[in-house]
From TrEMBL:
Species of the source: Podospora australis
Source organism phylogeny: Eukaryota, Fungi, Dikarya, Ascomycota, Pezizomycotina
InterPro entries, per database record: Rhodopsin_dom_fungi, SAT4-like
Keywords of the record: Membrane, Transmembrane, Transmembrane helix
Protein name: Rhodopsin domain-containing protein
Region listing for Disordered, in residue ranges: 376-405
């Protein structure tokens, strides 16, 4: 329908299923959860390695983009809800500033789409780098890894490139006319929504192939297999959210005969993009720990437990007061727990038992433990020149050593 000034068209809206207060509540809830998840991840990583990895910096960039979309939504989502109120027939919200405010809301929506898609792509690259560290010794793993990386980057760029940003960054005379409200324009929006969800879900599924290859060639305990099954279920949840984001658009863009179709609710699309990015971010913070994929030697664990008990007895005898107890708790409990989660012990036997792995050349370094006498014992056949030399070295002197004058 057209308003009374300028012949501008306000399309009916469909699937407006979230209120503004609920949007803001969920918005800041995920900001708090994602920020806390990243801080815990960085704390564990720094305690274990005393440095951050490339994945941690990538996740920091993704967190900045995630929280930036939340701030933009807080400032401008109200203009989108006002626009959708008019699209539902409530023209009491239309005033002299209506279209200017709508343009601000649409520009904010376009900006968050770019930030969200870019942030999700960065999270996926974080997954890929992490799995490459673990499975780089497997045959054909690098070939599969590079193929998935190219697909992820290509689909991320295509999702941004296929969006019709003229209908969010142009002026009111272009957006609220047939340029963005015709059946052809709506059909294009529908195709873009389905394409975005399809390639996004496909890239998530391809990323799952990498840990599947690793676990297929690994021998780990049943408890970790169950835990990894739960983690992979979280990734499947991300795929489900992506599919839901695309499927809610199907009936909105359908037309029957001469009946005019409806536009997808911008607030609803905004909401599902935000849910997808938040879910992907949280799953990435949970999965990126090597201990899920490694097998720890039980004897090494027992040695660590003995060492911890000795340190506890020693420090409890030397320190008193709540500050000392807090520091001891941090050093002996939190730090060791972080290393257990991260899988980065310095004195334990921790391996990923892989089959069909690439051959690793022997080290050229001499590894001799001078504190272990067993390294020096060697069975020498009797009667050989080497055994005779050893026997000569063991002879006692027949005369006393000469005394100094």
């Amino acid at each position: 329908m057209a308003d009374e000034t300028g012949g501008r068209i306000i399309q009916p809206v469909g699937h407006s299923s979230i209120t503004e207060p609920a949007f803001h509540a969920i918005n800041w809830l995920f900001v708090a959860i994602c920020t806390l998840a990243y801080l815990v991840r960085v704390y564990i990583r720094y305690v274990s390695f005393r440095k951050l990895t490339v994945e941690d910096w990538l996740m920091l960039v993704a967190l900045v983009m995630h929280n930036a979309t939340a701030i933009i939504a807080q400032l401008f989502i109200r203009h989108i809800f006002v626009l959708e109120a008019a699209e539902r027939g409530d023209y009491s919200v239309v005033d002299e500033h209506f279209f200017d405010n709508c343009l601000r809301g649409l520009k904010a929506f376009g900006s968050t789409m770019v930030l969200t898609i870019t942030g999700i792509t960065i999270v996926k690259v974080n997954f890929l780098i992490f799995f490459r560290r673990i499975g780089r010794e497997l045959r054909w793993f690098s070939v599969v890894w590079w193929g998935v990386l190219i697909f992820v980057l290509g689909t991320g760029a295509s999702q941004i490139g296929m969006h019709d940003f003229k209908c969010v960054f142009s002026d009111a005379d272009y957006i609220f006319t047939l340029n963005c409200t015709s059946n052809e324009a709506r059909a294009k929006n529908y195709f873009n929504a389905i394409f975005s969800a399809a390639v996004d879900a496909t890239s998530d599924a391809l990323i799952l192939v990498l840990p599947t290859i690793i676990l297929w060639h690994a021998r780990i305990e049943r408890r970790k297999k169950i835990l990894l099954g739960f983690v992979f279920g979280l990734v499947a949840l991300t795929i489900g959210v992506t599919i839901t984001r695309g499927s809610v658009s199907h009936d909105v863009y359908q037309t029957r005969g001469d009946e005019q179709g409806k536009e997808q609710s911008i607030s609803w699309t905004w909401f599902w993009f935000y849910i997808e990015s938040s879910t992907a971010y949280l799953v990435a913070c949970i999965v990126n720990f090597r201990t899920l994929f490694v097998q720890r030697n039980n004897m090494s664990r027992e040695r660590n437990e003995v060492r911890l008990r000795r340190e506890q007895l020693h420090r409890s005898a030397l320190r008193r007061g709540w500050l000392a107890k807090a520091k001891f708790y941090h050093d002996s409990v939190l730090v060791e727990t972080c290393k257990e989660i991260e899988g980065s012990w310095s004195d334990t036997d921790e391996t990923l038992h892989l089959e069909n792995r690439l051959p690793v050349p022997a080290s050229g370094l001499m590894t001799v433990d001078f504190g272990n006498d067993e390294n020096w014992s060697k069975a020498v056949p009797p009667g050989t020149a080497q055994s005779q030399a050893i026997s000569l070295q063991s002879l006692e002197p027949t005369h006393a050593p000469r005394q100094g004058v």
